[in-house]
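User: Predict MBL fold metallo-hydrolase's structure from this.
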Amino acid sequence: MANPYDIFEIKSTQTIMPGHFAGPDYFNEISENSTGKKTLIYGGSINQSRTQYIVTGWKNI
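Assistant:
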């Protein structure tokens, strides 16, 4: 089995919207390899842990 991909999506907004996760979800669907961690980096400052994602403020990377 191949190594899983870690997916990173970068958004400039400070407000997290459900649509921001569409790209990584789509990649997960079409990828032949399994995905590892899915991380959204955004313009806000609060880190969050969601069910399928890690949400990180850009100042915390």
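Strands lie at 5-10, 35-42, 48-49, 54-57.
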